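User: Fold this; tokens only.

Assistant: Input:
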Amino acid sequence: MNPQRRALLCASSLAAALPFAAGAADAAPPAAALPPLPAVPAGMTPDMLATHQAYWQAVVAQYDTTDAVIQLDNAFWGSMARPVLSHYEQQLSMVNRDNAWYARMRFPADFEAARAAAARALGVGIDEIVLTRGATEALQVLIAGYNRLRPGDTVLYADIDYDNMITVTRWLRQRRGAEVVSIAIPEPFTHDSVVAAYVAAMERHPKLKLMLLTHVNHRNGMVLPVAEISRLARERGIDVIVDTAHGFGQLDMTIPDLQADFAGINLHKWIGAPVGVGAIYIKRGRVADIDPFMGEVRDETAGDDIRTRVHTGTVNFAAYLSLPTALDLHAHIGVANKQARLRLLRNRWVEAARGIDGIEVLASADPRLTSAIASFRLKGKTSVADNFALSKKLVQEHGIFAVPRDGLANGACVRVTPGIFTPESHLDKLVAALRKVAKG
């Protein structure tokens, strides 16, 4: 029996045996009140709202941000808004006080409530997700646990995929006897060239059975046409595992939109939950195609339960308890509104930087392929050392924090990621700094 189900049954049994148990442990604090935001005028689209300063000033007011630097690395994880942080601190205090009494008696049910809230936001059934500590853990479980491979079958990844996921995919040589191959996405990239690259790989490898697809890559922010590639793969009998760590939460979508049966999800990046919350999605009917976690015993009374596919152990209780508040605030602001605002901020610096001699911008002008993330480098400076030096120069001379990224076939770059709380003036300062560094 999986640990979460065991904990639920244990708590129920104890509660039945101890009549005083139900009220003995303090209830978890209720979800925080959501901040009032300016009314959106009738007929105003998300793109129109993206320029509505009063609305976004009210959103920005919900966040505490550093003034030590201009923070343009908001893709690492998402800052909690004040209502989420306050709720998290209350939960942390309660859990610390009540300790095992709360953890054993009340947390299992509260955890299931958080799981249900996540399922609703993701647009899937609660039986199709299990919560994890992040997308990395989720994808490691899916890739390593995928059991439909036979020796000689082919597995594919691309240069845009996340480093840790590439490592796990390569491990399938040892674990499953698979042939693991890779492709490089053409640069500059277009919708058609990206799809064509995957189609060519499918045709070139007739024994291809599994592909890793990164929804929004963490290096240059390209939004992969996942649904289209997934449909083409399904027609050929190929499964895909989608890394949507940077997709869900900043793009106006739900998991079924990906047209994929397996996905790893991050909830502490663009949702703004406490650090240490993610999820695995396995489409109903496909759980058996992922191995139970390290010998976890199948629950004969429940069938193939997705919760047997991961065993995290003792978790950050308060982080999961605060997830519903983070999801409520995310919905309150509106994911389509967030996407439009992030795109406006991204375009503000990208479009200006394209006109700077000596700067190469790694970003598409096609809205279908754009996210909050985009990258740049000095023309001809593609080494890791070049871009670490450029990042360091921006911090030391201009007070701008943007991080170097490596792994693209065409070389390293510096990544820029605004958050919904980033002032437009910070992007203007970045552009001014790029003009200076381009001159040497």
